[in-house]
Model the fold of this input.
Amino acid sequence: MHIVVLDGGTTNPGDLPFDAFKAFGTLTYYADTKEDEVVSRAKDADVIIVNKTPLCAQTIDRLPKLRYIGLISTGYDPIDVAHAGKRGIPVTNVPAYSAHAVAQMTVAHILNLTNHVAQLSDRVKTDGWLAVKHGHFSDLPLAELKDKTLGLFGFGNIAKQVAKTALSFDMRVFACARHAFSFPGVTQVSKDELFKSADILSLHVPYTKQTHQIINADSIAQMKDGVLIINTARGRLIDEAALGAALRTGKVGGFGTDVLFDEPPQKDNPLFDMPHVFITPHVAWSAYETRKRLLCTAVSNLQSYLNGTPVNLVNEEGLQWNIN
Done:
């Protein structure tokens, strides 16, 4: 079996080799692959391991030996999974591997916006503390989280971890989800009620046609003045121009995000010059522990497929395939 890793550098900056895949056959590793390089690099591949490199229908059709696509990610947007299914090629992903890490980043952004950690640190380093000649200073208002309302838009594994932390701060926690749920301390509400009630709104839904720019001028108008918005989900959930306008007027009091509409972003992104905006470069998922878990599960997914008992299929419906 010939296994080709197309973009291992997204997961392995040098501390997590992909050697475990060698147990299944020969391994060819690329740290990064451009879309127009896929066919030349993977034309003899039985198995492709991939994160963000696009595999469209036309590309898949030019890979006659391909039997299996293993994602080293949860999201599968870059893959035409339906077409792979028509070709009899199973596609697997790695769900829920980074819930604790992404929840941790979500809470870090909340605390940064309410305690102004980054801004105060910067001001101390530029002599802001020395200038006032007191034992302490703060020219930014700090906010206590107790009795504030946290709105969770989506209530999957990550949001549940965020809720646990928020409840430990004695926050009120509301959540909007597609299905009914029961979770101690969390009140299920509609989307409109969530937007109207939240002091802090945190996004935890996948990107779909229905959620495209779900945060826009109209939805922001529903929100409380000074609302804080956190996004550790997908950048395209937000109309960045509308958010920028709301930040300028103070309708939105602050924005903490790990994702942007375009990644990497354009230099003229309207959020870059905004006050009270803090952007981390899509790293919430990437703690060493989570990447190790991700890689181990990807290896296990391939083993399960070869055993004839595939798991974590994202194109199971209508898939007809044979491992022989």
